Every structure is written in C-alpha cells, then in structure tokens.
Amino acid sequence: MNALDIKLNEAFPGKVVRKDLLHEIKRAVNVPSFVLEFLLSRYCASEDPEEIEEGKKAVLQTIEKCYVRPDESNKAQAIVEQKKRHKFIDKIHVKYVEREKRYWAEMENFASKRIAINSNFYQQNEKLLESGIWAEVTLAYNEVEEDDYAFFIEDLRPIQIAHFDEQKFFSGRERFTTDEWIDVLIRSIGIDPDWLAERSRKLNGDKNGRRLKFHILSRFLPLVQSNYNSIELGGRSTGKSYFYSEFSPYSTLLSGGQASTATLLYNNQRKQVGAVGFWDNVAFDEVAKMKIKDADTVQIMKDYMANGRFSRGREVTGYASFSFVGNFDLNIPRIVNSYDHDLLVTLPEAFDLAVIDRIYNYIPGWEIPKIDDSAYNNNFGLITDYMSEALHYLFVHDSDYVGVVNSRLKKGDNIEGRDNRALQKTISGFIKLLFPTGQPTDEEFDEIVEYAIEGRRRIKEQLNKRKPDEEYARINMSYINKDGQKVVVYCPESKYSIATQNPRKDANVHVLTEPAHDNVVTTPVTANVEPKITQNHVLSDIIPGSETVEDGSLKEKTVDVQYGDTGYGYDDLFAEYLKGASIVMLEEPYLTHGFQMTNLVRFVELLVKIGDCKVFRLVTKPGETPEESTLISDSLQRLKNTLDDMDDVSMTFEYEFDENSHDRYIRTSNNWDITLGRGLHFYQNLNPNKDSRNFFQMGTYDLSLRPCLKTRFTFMKRNAKE
C-alpha cells in the first residue's frame, strides 16, 4: 500500500476496496461494477492475502451460483422448479399490463415476463417501474396449477447500502488535500490518476496534469447537481457510457438513445412521472442515434431542462439531470475552422437551438485518451456503492452551496441569463464534489470558474455558428480573478479559429467582440497553467474574406505523405496557397532543437521569396526549462532583427509563447487553413549518427529531395462549402 492507500483505509474503514480485484473479476463476468463491489465488500474486506484469495473465490462462486447468463435462462428456470426456490443476482423490472390490470415482474436474464410480485416490493422501490434495479432476488416456484404464472418473488434486496452516514463521509474527506481527494474520486471509478496526469501533460501541455482529471470529474457533476444538463462527445472507449451505467444505481443509461414523453417525462395513462422522477441522472447513450418518438417530447424537454418543471395535464416537477454522450469521429481542427459545421453536428435534428442553449457544460471528449489496461487503478478506492450514496446525498442537498457561488463569483463581460445559470450549476457542482465541508482557496475557485466558463463557452460558440444574427455572439465571457484582473476564457481548440470566433453572419449583422482593456488576461483555460506571453498580439484579426486569390484553380485537398517519399519541399506544398496572403499565421509548438528552428527559417524564406506577406505571426510553446525558453526567445528575436534589417523586405515578424499550444497549422488572410500533421518537421534525419555528418547526401539543402516521415496535410478554404 502507498501513502494514499493507508490514508483511505484510515479515513473510510470498511468502505474501500482494491480496484485491481474489481478489474480481475470484471474480465470474467459481465456484471456492473457496483454489483461486483457489493460482493467484494462482503467477502474481501481484509488486507490478509489468504483471506482476499478466499474472498475472491466466494465472489466468483456467488456469481456462478446466482448470476444468470442470457443463454442459461432455461437452466435457471429448471433450478427454481427443482429446488422450489433460488436466489439470483439480476436486473429486475416491473411492468403494468393494462389489459390484465395487474403488475408483472421481469428479470433481464431469466427469460420470464410473468413473474408474480407483491405490491410491497414495487411500492417500496419505485424504480422497479421505470428502468429497473439490480437486486438479490429470491424466486420461488408456484405449484398451484390453476394460477397463470410459474414463478413469484419471495424476497427482494436492492444492491445498495442500507444506511449512509454523511458526517463520517464529511470527516473522512477533511483528512485529504484537494489533490489527494481528486485522486481518490478518480481511483474510485477504476482509473489510475497518475496515468491520467501523465497523458494530460503530454496532450495538453498541462504541467500540473489536472486538465484531463477535470474532464473526468465533470462526469460526476450530473450525479451531485440536480437539473444539470451536460454533453460529452468524443472518441470511442473513453469510458463515457461505462461511467453512467456502472458507477451509480441512481443513474440510468438509455441505450440506443430512445426517448418518449411517457418513459422519460410523464405517462398520461398511468398518471405517473417518468424517469426524471426516479433517477438522479438520465444519460442518453449514442445521442447521435437518439430517436424522438413523439413530437411533444422535445418541447417538454425544453421546459424541463430550463427549470425542472413542465406541464402535462398538471404541473410536474423533477430533479434528474440529463447527460448526453456520444462518439465523435470528426476532425476537430477541420470542424472548428469550418464556417458550415460545428462541434454539435452529430446531434439529432430535433435538437434545436433552444435545447442546445439549455446545456450547461460541453466536455471535450476528444481530449480524453482511450481507456486500456494500463489506465486501470490497482490501488484502493471507495466502494462504488458507498461513493454513489455520497453523491446522492450531495445531489439532494443543493442550497448549501448556491450562496458560496453567488458570494464569490465576480462576473466579467458577456455572461448572460443562461450563461449565469450554467456557471452557477457547474461551479456549485464542483464545490459539492471537491469541498463538501469547506470552501476552495482563491486559486482553486478561479480554476473551477475558468473550467466552467470554458464548458459553457463551447456551447455558446456552436450556437453562434448556427444563428445568423447576434443573439449568441457575445462569446468572450470573462470573470474577475483573485488579483482583480479580468480574464477572458477561451476553448483551446478554437481560440485561433476565425470561423468559430467570427463566423459568417448576415451582411447587416455586427458580431460583437470583446473590447480591449488594459487589465485583460486572454488565456485558453488549462488548470493552473497561465501562458507566458512575450508579445501581446491579437491573432484573431485576420479578417475572413478580406482577400481573394487571383488564381481560382486552387482546390481543397488532402496530401498524404508516406514514409520515404520525396518531392515535398515547402515550395511544392505551400507556395501556391500563400500567394496573395498579406497575413500568415503559423502555430508550430516545437522549436526546441536546432533543426526545428532551421525549418522555421526555411519557411520564412519562402514567404520572403513570394513577397506578398506583410505580417507573419508565430505561436509556439516555451521550452521545458528557463534555459530552453531563453534560447528559443533569443533565436526568434535574431530572426526578427534579420528581417527588420532587410531594406527590400517589408514583412513584420510577430511571435508569442503559449504553453497550451498543441495544434500545428497555417492560417492565411486569403482564407486558406492548412493543417500540418507533424508541423514543419516532417523530414527524415539524414545524419542519425551525430558523429558522422554527410554534407554530400541529396536532400541536405534542397528539401524536395529529402525523404519524408509519414504525415498528412489538409488544405481547406474557409469560405468554401464543405
């Protein structure tokens, strides 16, 4: 055990479990995590290796004896008939059959839809009437031949802890620092926080490794904050659906995205509230395939998402949050640089602007790496069932945290009605999750605020793209930080995208932008990371449509370069697309090594040779050390001085450092966006042995003769239909 394992066991005795045991057994059986941990806590509540091994055997034996696989339903029925009763672990539903005027139970893997059930069971557990619950169910055989059923439920025990002591939970939380508690939460859902931090640093330039952790923590928000609406679109196998289906019996996942007014909101026939009345969170899986069964559903959803109420013959109030999750296979740079598409392009057509505007947080799922075996937590974490009860307690206690948000949040410009509600909900959720008994420091509060604004801004940017007027144009939301500075928060993927920041509007519409202030910090949000800006230049003033290329023959294209290919010098690739551009912007994050700086000089030489560029702007990352940063800065300044000293060159060179820089692309004022797979550095090293430099090898000076690495270039016209 490490130090955090020891502290967990001391703070929450009997409420923790080794997550490697869960992973080990999970590979063999397809049972929800909270069910397995329910059994692990019963049989493996020990630190003794021999007792743990015996406990694992008991868990497996219980599952083998009590868990029914779908292909063993006939065998299970025979066991009940022969033994007269048997205990099963299964998911059980109860349905009302109108023509028979009675209720029947159905167990998912038992293959019988006519199991008799006493009214006491479904009256005490109303979720049985909706999406069902996992439970230990004792089935008995009915030997009365006159009856129209063979099996009846003799006993039913929901797989949830019987009592939750919130004071013990709060006192346990107080023993951990904020960083430790974040890791506890991530551990408890089976992910190694160190694995996540490592990838966060690599993928996002986040030195503290917290950005990806915040993405994962955002998945918790609908489970602690009532009437919270969020969306996450990203790659496959990142744990989206798995989280909402596995880690809380208070959350339900609607597979296939099917939704109807009766099941989701209100059943007029039964005069009963739908899923929103029984669950803390309703997650819509594969939202792109979501089927709206009746026309009223979306309209009622709008009312409910706005204020938790709707009218369906009578006024109905619910508290369930909505989580929309789905896979997103599209190229993010291409989408954010497109005037015709947005990051919500996969949503069903029934989701109009009013529905989207009621979503408070957009989690950028494309940043989250795939969850594989290396991602699993092999240390202790809270038992899922215990953690879900803690989340549920926080869910039903809202009022304690609203005042904290209202008293501390200092709003800047452009935070409008629904923006304000979104920020209140998101910030309150994070405080409940991370600081249930206290308050964050000023630095921690600012970190949460920035993340909340980013998530809401991502929604507002897409709305602004879709609406041809200025209703959603005030996207540059800001807040006043602890130092009294106004901070404008950007989404990293779109900060430099003209198509997103200034989308095409009707000719008579003026797009509002953030006015300049002396006291403004413009930063794409990454937790606890502030970019080091050496030149304060606004890169978004490349005006779309301000210039045109005389040669209209240039087409959008994708160039795939294979390993070892030649014929791809900068002239061959870029020259025709750079002609006529008075402003050229390059984002090239990596200029640490000498060959990388040399490649930059070669690119600048191309711009000088073409002669049309008046302003060249560079965005790059600082070095990993102060010495590296100084070296890069000195080199760039030397390049700038060289250009300034050339009498026959009228090109201005501007540059800035951004720790969040990651993408590699060229953007021109004549409306071309060129994505660079490997940036400027896609050539093979001709001298892998540093002690043997061959100046006579072809490609040493003429890059068109040099073999390439495998890469891809995409040329896209911003004002062209895609």
Describe it for me?
By secondary structure, the protein is an alpha/beta fold. The protein has four domains: 3-12 and 172-397 and 435-442, Rossmann fold; 70-158, OB fold (Dihydrolipoamide Acetyltransferase, E2P), CATH 2.40.50; 398-434 and 443-529, no CATH class; 531-717, 2-Layer Sandwich (Endonuclease, Chain A). The chain contains 24 helices and 28 strands. The strands form eight sheets. Strands 22-28-27-26-23-24-25 form a seven-stranded mixed β-sheet, covered by helices on one side. The chain has a five-stranded mixed beta barrel with strand order 2-3-4-6-5. Strands 8-12-16-7-17 form a five-stranded parallel β-sheet. The protein is elongated and about 105 Å long. It starts with a helix and ends in a 5-residue tail after the last strand.
The name of the CATH architecture of the largest domain is 3-Layer(aba) Sandwich
* CATH third-tier fold name of the largest domain: Rossmann fold
How much beta, percentage-wise? 15-25%
Regarding CATH, which class of the largest domain?
Alpha Beta
Q: Output the number of helix runs.
A: 24
Low-confidence stretches: 507-551
Shape: elongated
Give the rounded overall mean pLDDT: 84
Distance between the termini: 55 Å
Which structural class best describes the helix and strand composition?
A: alpha/beta
Integer tally of domains: 4
- Would you report the number of β strands? 28
Radius of gyration: 29 Å
Q: What level of helicity do the residues show?
A: 25-40%
Q: Write out the strand line-up for the largest beta sheet, numbering strands in chain order.
A: 22-28-27-26-23-24-25
What summary fits the major beta sheet?
7 strands, mixed
